[in-house]
Amino acid sequence: MSINKIIARQAAYYSQDAGEWANSAYASEYPEITALLNLNLPKHNRYAVCNLRGGIGKSTLTFNLTYDTNDIIAVDTCPQSNSTAFFTRGQPASGTTIYDALLPYLLPRMSFPSRIAQKIERLNPYFSGKNAYFVPSSANLYEFPSIMESALSQARSIPGESDKARSQILNSFKDLLDRETRKYNISKVIIDTSPFFSGATHLSWHAVDSLIVPVRTDQQSVDSLQLLIHLLRDPSRTFLRAQESLELSQPKIQMVVVTHCGWSTRAGARNEPNNQTKVYLEKVHSLVANNIDLFTTDDPDNHVVPLDDFLGSGRIASANQIPIKCLEPQQSFTIEGQRVEVNASVEKCQKQLSFITSNIW
Ligand SMILES: Nc1ncnc2c1ncn2[C@@H]1O[C@H](COP(=O)(O)OP(=O)(O)OP(=O)(O)O)[C@@H](O)[C@H]1O
Ligand SMILES: [Mg+2]
């Protein structure tokens, strides 16, 4: 089992435009650059960006993939509201939050809000002209898991109607997305999730076709990928246990995006990962290979995609809520009194983001 193909693909991003592939170090093993770059993944409409660990790049990736896609609704289900702040440029969210929209499904006397998704360009001018919407999050989501738990236990006690009531709750997010996508005639949805499973993350798994799982190059992130795999597979764990006899849809994993990757700076080493990146790409690849039945194809090489450390560009992008695609090398910004420059490698990150986008939609 090797990560050669995944590394060769990185080199191919560069040579693709310059037409240099024939001279590259990888061309003898992979002469057909087009075949190398084509993952042939099935395309879906609805994704949740999910891993059960904080600070690994879920919100950053959600924001950037939303920017890269037209005709899309992004939903922030994390109570920390980081992707909401990206969309609102740091302003407090107004209007209906995802908490307000989901609550009536759990508390039947509440009425359903009529307006939910908001056009992003009204709040973040980098989205001007894009048909992109978002649903903000709310700190109230910290309470959501316990509300959902008591709604499910009440549903279980309804004589003769228990299955119907439970499936209405577990399918609530799916139903909400069906309504919103119909209203705006949009099919693509991306959901940013919290690092915890209970509550909105749980509901998002029944609402999407597939997961995009960011994993940072550290052991804790790999452990959380392992935990996520257990949740998808083990009938004694929350996700499958809560369904019991119900037939609800379950997501597969489309892609594991290995974030914060770094590449060797040794003279002559072109497109070779540094040691840490290599170790974690190998660990992730091996986990994917051992659980390939949970993925959308049967080839592990298709499902591990590196995303580099954004370096200064990442600081600039998050401080100013700018999509990575809108930055240009050498532009400079002042952040907290410090001048920070967009690094040249931002162009590689932009290509990596395009590659991810073109392999999900
Ligand atoms: N590819 C990247 N390169 C460099 N920095 C990154 C990258 N992706 C994210 N970051 C930075 O890492 C930090 C965490 O990112 P982000 O908020 O997207 O993670 P998260 O998984 O959504 O965290 P949480 O679970 O707490 O919501 C942020 O400071 C962000 O700017
Ligand atoms: Mg986040």
UniProtKB/TrEMBL annotation:
Residues 48-233 form the AAA domain. Coiled coil: none annotated. It comes from the Bacteria. SUPFAM superfamilies: P-loop containing nucleoside triphosphate hydrolases. InterPro entries: AAA_dom (IPR025669), DNA_Partitioning_ATPase (IPR050678), P-loop_NTPase (IPR027417). Gene3D superfamilies: P-loop containing nucleotide triphosphate hydrolases. This is ParA protein. It comes from Thiothrix nivea (strain ATCC 35100 / DSM 5205 / JP2).
